[in-house]
Amino acid sequence: MFIIIKKSWEDFFSLKMLTLNLLPILIGIVFWAFVLFYFSDYFIKFLEYFLPQSWQKISQNQGFFSHIGNILIHSLLYILLGFLILILTLIGNIFISIFYTPIVVKYLHKKYFYYIDIDSFGSIQTSIHHYIKSLGKFLLFFIVLTPFYFVPFIGFFAILIPHFFFFKNTMLFDIGSSIFNTVQYQSFMRKHKIKIYQISLMAYFFSLIPIFNFFATLLQTIIIARYLFQSKSNIN
Q1: How far apart are CA 214 and CA 227, in angstroms?
Q2: Which of 7, 136, 163, 181 is deepest in the core (most CB within 10 A)?
Q3: Nearest residue to 170 via CA among 85, 81, 118, 92
């Protein structure tokens, strides 16, 4: 697994991959800078609506202790806002990755895995359709778990766990459908569940690094694609 990360890291810094990553990075930075500059106050007010009633009363009261409580509550809200922006950024990056995944797969195939036949069954339209379905499931879980977001420590996992499954399911389908045929893909997903979770978690870790998350999706695509190529090579 760590060898895959190391080699994927080297490919990530190749001229072709850096060039491929430039436009998504610029779009992401400009978009979220605009959103945070103009709409951060609206996001905070939206999150305040979901605060427990006891917390809302603290915000409305006067006095020294209420002031301290108000500072702590708003600190929590800004931390939560940061996580939400992080998740939304990653969701947008995953959508953009649908369009450059075929380029990454072709690059790795030509450079390292030319001896493997590609039997793809997907297309960009197929990946977008799967992305929308996965996003719908993620949003459903996101809404259901809303009360847990304001529970210390638990709230962190209540946000990240649904997004991890969205990340895993979307990325694996997008990349896997570019390498395997339908039967091979379904068989691989069924027989290698533990290893799939392992490589997905290792790739997902890069999403949690501040600032680098704008760059990370291409690296994650390379990691998962390399893993799938190597797995297919072992199967053959």
Answers
A1: 22
A2: 163
A3: 92
